[in-house]
C-alpha cells in the first residue's frame, strides 16, 4: 500500500469540542494523589514528571473488555490489541514487538513488576486484574529511581483499591455480541478493623473471528490491617487464560474485505496462560519524619502457545517463579527529604520450544530449545527533594542495579539440525553466566508559579538489560550474543495548570536511545541500533461538577531511526525513517452527561496513519472510532449499563503489520453492543 496523504480527519473537531465544552461546567479543582512515582501516595501537583491517572469512576464507566479500551484516555499511550486478550504496548514510543518490546516499558500491579527482568512477555498485561482495579497510573518517559530495569519509555501500573471498606460490593452480569459473557463479583469480608475485599471475574467470549474465542478467570483478594504506627496491605491475584487464537489475515487492505474479516487462517492456534502474583506491604511511622515501607512479593507464571505467526508452527512453553523485596526509608537531610531503598529478587525461569510436525531440514521436527535460568537482581537507589525557595523545588534520584543470569542448556549444545542442513535456523548456546550492571538517574526543577500554575523541567535516563531470549535463543549458528543493556536519555518540559473550568497538563520531550538490540541480516542478536523520539502530549479535563464535563488526551510523537544498523531484511538506508507502528497523532475525547440516575458518555478515538515496516514503503491509513456508554440507576441497588463500541461501524485494523512480503492485519470488530445488569447490596 502506498503512503497516503496526511489527514488528521476528525482530530480538530475532537480537540475543539473537548476544549469548548468545559466552559459549560463549573466547580473547583479536586486534589489528586499519585502512587507510582515514589511507591507511596504523593500529591500530583508536587510531581516533577509526566504522570497520569485513571480513577475508579472512569474505569467503572469504561467497563473495558481489554486494556486498550481505557488506555486511550491516557496521553501517548496505546495498547494495540491483538486477538483475544493479546496486546502490544506503546508509551511515548512506537509499538515495540518481540523481547525488546515488552522489555522497554515497565508493567506492574501495585508497584510490583508483573514479570522479572529478562523474562517479560509482550502480552503480560493480561496477568493484571483490570476489573478489580481501583486506578491505573502511567509514567511517561524513563521511570524514576524507585524503578529500574525496563522503564525506558515509561510505566503502566494497575492499582488495587486503597481501602477495602471504601470499595463497593457488586454482582454484575454482562452480555455482548458473538457470545460474550462476563460476570464480575466484588465482596467485602471481615471486621471493619481488618477488612478483606474479594473480587472474581469470569469471561467467556465466542470471538468475532471463527474459532477464536477465549475463557478467562481472575481472582483477587485484598486485605488491610493497621494500628497507630504500622499498616499491613496484602494482595493476591490469580489469573487463568485459555484462548483460541486467530492469526493475521493477509492482503492489501484485507481488513476492509467483508468476506475475509472473520476468517481465521490459524484455527489450530492457542494460548494458555496462568499467573499468580502475591505481595505483602508494611508501612511504618507514616506520621513521623522517618516513614518506611517493606514489600515482600512472589510471582509465578506459565504459558504455552502455538507460534502460529511462523510457518513451521512450533509450540512454546515458558514461565518463571520469583521472590523479591522492595524497601524504602525516608528522613530529613540537608534541608530536604531523602528516600533510600534496596530492591532485590531471585528468579527461576525456563523455556521450551518443540516443533510437532516436520517442516524442512532447516526447521526440523522435535525440540529446538529447552533451557533453565537462575537470575538474581539487586538494586540500591536514592531520591532527594528540596525546596530551594517558596516557589522552586529540586528533585533528583539515582539507581544502581545488577542483574545476573545463570543459564543451563538441558539439550545438546550447537546446531539443532542434521549436518546436511543448508542453513539451520536454531542454535543452542552452551551453559554460561552473564551479568549486567546499570545506572539510571533523573533530576529536575519544579517552579510553582502560583497556586494554579506549575512549570517543570526534567532530565532522566533509563535502561533495560538484554532479555534471556535475546541471549540464549540464538539462530543461524550464532554461538553467543555479545549484548549490552539498552539505554535512553530524555529531557522534557512540562506545564500543569488549573483554570476556572478545567485542568491542563502538557509536556514536550526529546529522548535518544542507544545500544538498541535487534536481529541483523544474519538473524544474529546484536547491539548498536539508535533511535530518537520527540513530541508533546496533552491532558485536558473539565472540573468534575455540574451535569456536563469533558476530557481530552492527545499526543504527537516523531519516532525515527537515527542510524543504519543493518536490520533483518532491510538493505537500504533508513536514517530518518519513521519506526514501524508509530502513529504521529493519537487523540481521544469524551463528553459526559450526568443527571440524577443517568450517566452517558460519547467517546471519539483518533489514531493516525503509521508505517508498517522500516523502509516506510507500506502504511496503514489510520482510523477514527466513536463509542457510546450509558448507565441508568433504577434503585439504590439495581442499575443497567449499555455500551455501543465502534458506533459508526467503520472498517479498521486493531493492528497492521508487514511480514513475509504481505500486509497483515488484526481486524477491528464491527459495531458491538454490550449490556450489563448490576446489583449492589
TrEMBL record:
Membrane topology, as annotated: Multi-pass membrane protein
Transcription regulation among keywords: no
Subcellular location, principal: membrane
Domain of life: Bacteria
GO MF term set: siderophore uptake transmembrane transporter activity
GO cellular component: cell outer membrane
SUPFAM superfamilies with a match to the protein in the record: Porins
Keywords for the protein's UniProt record, in alphabetical order: Cell outer membrane, Ion transport, Iron, Iron transport, Membrane, Receptor, Signal, TonB box, Transmembrane, Transmembrane beta strand, Transport
InterPro entries: Beta-barrel_TonB, Beta-barrel_TonB_sf, Plug_dom, Plug_dom_sf, TonB-dep_rcpt-like
Family of this protein: Belongs to the TonB-dependent receptor family.
Name listed for the protein in its UniProt record: TonB-dependent receptor
Originating species: Aequoribacter fuscus
